[in-house]
Design a protein that fits this description.
The chain has about 180 residues and is mainly α. Helices cover about 70% and strands about 5% of the residues. It has a two-stranded parallel ribbon.
């Protein structure tokens, strides 16, 4: 009787281990897919935001020409969250210039991730640095995480800043061991 009980116990332990391994593999796979989707979407949004519609002079023409692109972007935004540093700026810009964005955002269909909030929440240096030094600014945070050289400056170009932001968030997550291994 005792032997049967031990066999059952071993059987359940093995099952639990298999289940844990499956969950871990699934989490790794979903983390990888989400990182890729977030990167692609962020770059796409950054490109749209700053490439062809950046100047006020071209804005009117750009809005008329890109109605189909706007629909595609809105569809992506509803499907995947997007990340921005100081997301309030992008959020307000999209509310004004992207048809249907404000309504979808209000309805909770669009999720915005602010990497500046990630910086303030995870980077302990932010609390110890003086507020005047703008410790949560992308440029300063990137320097502290080694994703921007000490003598380099943030470019303030959509695609370059998107890449810098994502590399910095990844560096912060790696430092805190927040990615599944």
């Amino acid at each position: 009787m005792k032997r049967r009980f031990l066999q059952k116990e071993d059987f359940y332990k093995k099952r639990i281990l298999k289940s844990d391994k499956k969950q871990q593999k699934y989490k790794q796979k979903t983390d990888k897919v989400m990182k890729k989707n977030l990167l692609v979407f962020s770059m796409f949004a950054g490109l749209l935001l700053f490439a062809s519609c950046a100047s006020k002079k071209d804005l009117q023409n750009c809005q008329l020409e890109n109605k189909e692109l706007q629909k595609q972007l809105l569809k992506l935004m509803k499907k995947y969250p997007y990340m921005a540093h100081n997301a309030a700026f992008e959020d307000s810009w999209f509310k004004i210039h992207l048809d249907g964005y404000a309504e979808a955002r209000r309805a909770g269909k669009i999720i915005v991730i602010d990497s500046r909030q990630i910086c303030r929440s995870l980077d302990a240096d932010v609390r110890s640095l003086p507020r005047e030094s703008a410790p949560a600014a992308l440029e300063n945070w990137a320097r502290r995480r080694g994703t921007l050289a000490a003598d380099a400056n943030e470019q303030h170009l959509g695609l370059d800043d998107t890449d810098l932001m994502l590399r910095t968030v990844q560096a912060e997550f790696n430092l805190k061991n927040l990615f599944a291994k």
